[in-house]
Amino acid sequence: MLRTIIVGTGHHVPERVVTNNDLSKLMTTSDEWITQRTGIKERHFTDGTECGTDLAKVACERALQMAGRTPADVDLIIYATLSPDHEFPGSGCFIQPKLGITPGTPALDVRNQCSGFIYGLHVGDALIRQGLYKNVLLVGAEVHSHGLDFSDRGRDVAVLFGDGAAAVLLSPVEDDSRGVLASVIHSDGRSARDLWLEAPGCFGKPRVNLQHVEEGRHFPRMEGRKVFVNAIQKMPEAVQEVLARAGQKVEDLSLFIAHQANLRICDGVAQRLGLPPDKVYNNIQRYGNTTAASIPLALDECVRAGRLKQGDLVCLAAFGAGYTWGAALLRW
Ligand code: UT7
Q: Is 112 an active-site residue?
């Protein structure tokens, strides 16, 4: 039986570090508020010239290098982002020539925000187990800093996010005991407007409207408390679901990585699951919420720090706009 394993990981963030104090010069906020409410101390922002596929390129090269593969080996690109370089075509098409991947290689874009990596993993795993692809490059990349409202109106959202990219290379293995043991994805569109970027969009004619810009509807907006409550509830449910599917228990986990949305959310999820701190990895303090990049970025740091050994049981979980959520369970 075919299973999907992660054979390489990589990440890349822009050089520029932006602290909470830096943000407090742009809007009415403070290091104390941001640290207490979110755990975030700093994040990386581009210098204004890099776009998502520039960050993704480096992350992908690092993942390919770790895997001992070249761009020519990639037979499917899955690109997850909520901040694409352009409305269309998808960023997967732009990364293909940037990386030198063979023309003709399919490029699938995933638009599932903070759950984008888990959605991409779910799809990539299914296609690999069907025997359709052998080297699936799954990348999550975001350039939030180009699209946030850094005035007081947007301060609840603007302090949370950071730029970054992270990638994994997925490959098949004929070993039932390894790789992705289970993954689940969910959505509940009734709450789509709790966290969204309304405009521009074809809900109206013309799709780009000066009034939308004046009203700030081209910036992301969020019902923070509602999102917070749902994240703390849905991520543990998804974790229990993948554990049950694979016949495993929380106690069996070696490492748990939750989408890095807010340290209080990550701690709340771990607490609900009864996971001790030494089995949980968080890095939101240094990167903020990098959305589709957050889980693979944390995973890459764990891999490169030698935190994972063969046989370890790893669980990844996400929740975000849509609402969308999901989890994956892997035997390393
Ligand atoms: O990636 C997945 C999606 N995102 C999330 O999962 C994020 C989920 N939500 C959250 O993390 C939290 O709701 C926030 C961090 C966004 C906000 O924390 P909160 O404890 O829910 O605060 P709040 O929205 O209830 O606001 C408390 C106060 C308000 O002032 P008043 O009305 O009490 O006077 C806000 O206006 O804090 C104020 N506030 C700020 N103050 C300083 C909001 N943003 C800021 C800010 N700096 N940046």
A: no
